[in-house]
Amino acid sequence: MNIKYLFFTAVLFIGVHAQPAYAQELKVKITPELGSVDVKHNGKTVTIKRNQNNDNKVVDDFAKTSRNCPPFCIQPMSLAPGVETVGEVEMLDYLTKVSSGDESVLVIDSRTPKWVKRGTIPGSINIPWVELNPAQGAAPFDIVDILTGKFGVKEQDGLFDYSKAKTLVLFCNGMWCGQSPANIRSLLEYGYPAHKLKWYRGGMQNWFNLGLETVKQPQESN
After folding, report:
1. Is 221 part of any domain?
2. Is 43 helix (H, G, I), strand (E, B) or coil?
3. Which residues of the chain have pLDDT under 70?
4. Which domain holds residue 10?
5. Do 51 and 98 belong to one domain?
């Protein structure tokens, strides 16, 4: 029998039987077909999977059911015309694109640094909502630096060209949090195309509720 054929058959046998064995190790999957996702975070590979302990509980920071409104009011499902609301599976898809080198996408944690230090989504970067908001002390030149230096916006003679602007996927603490909505509304005011803005409404609240992986080291502040 052909040696190459034997080798190919052996490799195929090992691959077919190894994959189900690994899949069976993960009792708590993301979807029936997806157990985990590898992403890059601060230059290191992080595996995003759900907590495998069926008795795991949500962390205390996200266990509260009642916060004063305002400011912690329930956000609508649709934040603004043209801005798409996404869920966890879509978030993982965007994170995978970013980690695979797709420079047309950024996943942004819109929270202030003290929240980010408690845990954030691997593969995201931190651009606090106050840094895009003049009413919170953001300087116009600093805002322009973020738009042009981080988001791929071109500026000439005071005019913005958004034709090559990146798709931004923004999140904060969840459906009661106003930080990512504030970032999105600021960007819309500056003319950022709505179809290039995606909103993960569930944010860290849902991420923790589903037992998905987080990283606790401080994020880069932009």
Report:
1. no
2. coil
3. 1-24, 217-222
4. 1-27
5. yes
